[in-house]
Amino acid sequence: MSDDDDKTGKNDPPKIDFNEMFDLDRSKEVRDFVREFEDGIEERTKATEALRQVASRAKASGFTADEVRAMRRIAKWRHDDKLDSARTAAIALQRVSKAVQFNLFI
User: Fold this and answer.
1) Contact between 85 and 77 (Cβ < 8 Å)
2) Which end of the chain has fewer beta carbons closer than 10 Å to its terminal beta carbon, N or C?
3) What tens digit of pLDDT does each residue of 88-106 get?
4) Where are the domains of the chain?
5) Contact at 8 Å (CB) between 58 and 71?
6) Cα–Cα separations (whole angstroms), residue 52 to 2, 68, 80
């Protein structure tokens, strides 16, 4: 071994990057979460477009915009298993509309 090797550091053991090894600053974890968010945003965009297409097909089949909104609302209540709250809202609407002589339910 020559003195030149010692001066240039050729014989030094490789430096260990503990930050890289143990992700001390959690940058790898952050990158993973960002990728997950990006994937979720992409899925949401695709789902939104699919729902728009369903609404367009319903309108093209002759349903009014109000009927399509009602379909979407009922689908959401069914998906969220909110039958009781939907019934409660409908009963309240019926009772209040009748009380003010603005009968929504013929």
Assistant:
1) yes
2) C
3) 999 999 999 999 999 887 7
4) 27-62, 64-106
5) yes
6) 75, 11, 20
